[in-house]
Specification:
By secondary structure, the protein is an all-alpha fold. The chain is built from 5 helices and no strands.
Length: 123
Amino acid sequence: MNQVLSTTVFTEIRFWLLIVFSIVLPFCMYGTLLIKRAISRVTVLLFGFTLVAIAGIDVYLLQSLAALAKRTSSLADDAIFVSEVSLALYLLPAMFGGIGINIVSHILVSHLVDAEKRFKDKN
């Protein structure tokens, strides 16, 4: 049974999920951080893991939209998701993943430094 394809990926829910995960959610998280002046280590750790998860979801959605764009009749889809321009779209997930890993690493290192200091003070 043939599945009816839309004429463009811009009407697909995956495209709108990409917008939400690439733009809306990160800016909301950043806005929340601007409003809150103090946050716990656990919150910072969750923030880092969330950025890594967003990066993974973005890559999945970009791959999915590229495959779908190849099957649609719209040339605008191909110009964005199938051409060399699509490489630029992977910069956001790369940035989110890199920042998320850096945040998680920061929390782990600071925890280890504190644990070493407590051990040293104990002895």
